[in-house]
Amino acid sequence: MIEGNDIVLNEYSEACVLRFLNFEQPFTYQGAKSLNSLDAIFSQPEQEHIVSWSNNLQKGQSYGPMQNGADTARGYILVKHPALEQADALSLRYVHYLCASQDRG
């Protein structure tokens, strides 16, 4: 018991990937086509694996590789999936979508 509550044990678990918005190459963010919906990035069955996501990128701001812990405020995506490789691929697709067709440099 923890503070009077019974411990809940899940018999089934899935792999999760938490990916922060870290970009390999510098670019100037021009905004994503759709921030209020994941429809442009993921199919409906894929969206069922998205636990949570946040995009705090500012239009016109330059971004690149994360430099310190404060860069985690850019945003993240949390994906669950029975296969860790699939969760990783879905999270990476989100990051690639955000920097695709943006101005480099």
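the 2nd protein, sequnce then structure:
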Amino acid sequence: MSIKKSFQTYILLLTSIPVIVMTVLAYILAYGKYMELTKNSMQTTTSTYMDGFHATLNNVISDNEILAGNLYIQSFLTEKANNPGMDFTASMYYKPVSEQLDLQMDANTDYVTYSLYDIDGYYVLGTASNTGDWSEYMNTPPAKITKTTIETNAPISDDKNAIDIITPVIVKDKVIGIVRANVKIDYFGAFASGEECFIIDADGSFLFHQDDLKEDSYIMNRVNSLLPNINNQAEKEMVYTAFKSNSSTYIYGYGILHDYDWIYIVRMNRKAYHAIFSSLPLLLAIGLIIILFISLIVSSQLTKKYTDPIMELNSCMLEATGGNYQIVCNIESKDEFGQLSNCFNEMMKIISGTNERQLEAQRQLEANEAQLIEHNKHVEELAYTDGLTSLYNRIAFMKLAQDILSEAKSSYKKHAVIFIDLDDFKNVNDTLGHDYGDDLLIQISRKFEECIESGDILARTGGDEFLIFRNFIDTPEEAISTVEKLIEITKNPFNVKGERVLISVSIGVSYFPQNALSLTELIKTADIAMYNAKTSGKNNYRIFNSGMADEVSRKSEMIAVLQTAIANEEMYMVYQPQADVATGKIIGCKL
């Protein structure tokens, strides 16, 4: 062999060896990079799909819990619980509850049907056409369901490609019924596709009938090895990646939904990735410059093709995590990255819609609470306020005074009850008219309010009767001072619609604890003292003493004796004749 040929051979070998080595190293490095990118892509896809499924599931759970908290549904089931034999279609809540269920079903594009059961498990109302009673199919009674649960492959469901979300309806910490949402697999869209996504529960059963995955023994063995320790998986180990051992067709990613102890599996076709590297061995026969140039172009294209979409998705995910649910991922391609971008955008629409509905429900709830508080305040005013004078009525007086007396019995504080009656008030109504009488009562009420102290209670308890509760008096003179102010008011005539009206008052006073220990006895003794004042000439006052009670008792006993004697005909008239002494003639008689 000539030197030229030897040199050429040597140069060829010297050139070929580095080319071969560099090509092999480039292939090894490229393959390692491909494996890393594929794994990262699979992890991102799995995490995104799993988050999308989780968000969609939480969305329908949230809708079901909002229905369970709906005031119409709670009122409807409460009415049903209080009257089990009622015709519930005649209930005032039947129509709004039915409309609410239909509206919620329409919002979920008919993929979710809702059923309402009472506390006994009987079907009451719903959007499904063929729903039986809960107690007919399920072992757990509604009363035992205290929080939202998810039933998979439940006997009550007639669609095996569906799951059931059960939420208790709770009023005052008591379960009065349940709301069942039957969610079809179509509701989850791509997140539960039978060709790409699979969900397995803690018992190893598929949530939906996706049995074709059982043919892959490798991935099923991997899943079965996870099931015993599913509760011990750390959060940082949320997503895993595995390859089929007997085929290069698919790539699998799986993660654990810790809220439900489910395994979420994503399957992607690997051929699109593998085809890119199938031509690399052929490049070993090409020269160093061409190989390096092609490698540079391929590396650049691969980096652009695989890392740019991942970075775009990562950026969008970070913005969504920060609370921007309006973010849109703009990856325009027809491969898996394009699908992933579309799924991400759909997931953001679902999350954004759920967030808006929750905010709207919160606003509606706050508005209802404010309206309820206002109504309760108005009802309380009607219950405790005199409609004419705006003073407290008898109910309010008894409640407020009783609360003070209950505290006073242990603190030895003194109080007084002042009973006021307007003398001859009926004459005002009879002579001038009831409208004049009402105006007079309003004027007197305003004057009485000026006479009481802060902490005292003034109430109109009858047509022309008023009660004052003097709170915390040190001496009886303090109550007497108030009484004298009240009498002083009536010394001057009132101008009632241009008419001068004179009115007087009779007042009775009773002290706590000297005269009575209960509010009822205090009012009674003050009333006795008031009538004593009225019989003594009116326009004055009397302080209760035991003699007044004895007098009332004596009169009551006398009346009772006379009534008994009359009823028994024990009373009769006796005549005594009167005669003229001179003539002896009867001239009259005495009875």
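The chain has three domains: 23-289, 394-544, 548-591. Residues 3-68 form the longest helix (66 residues).
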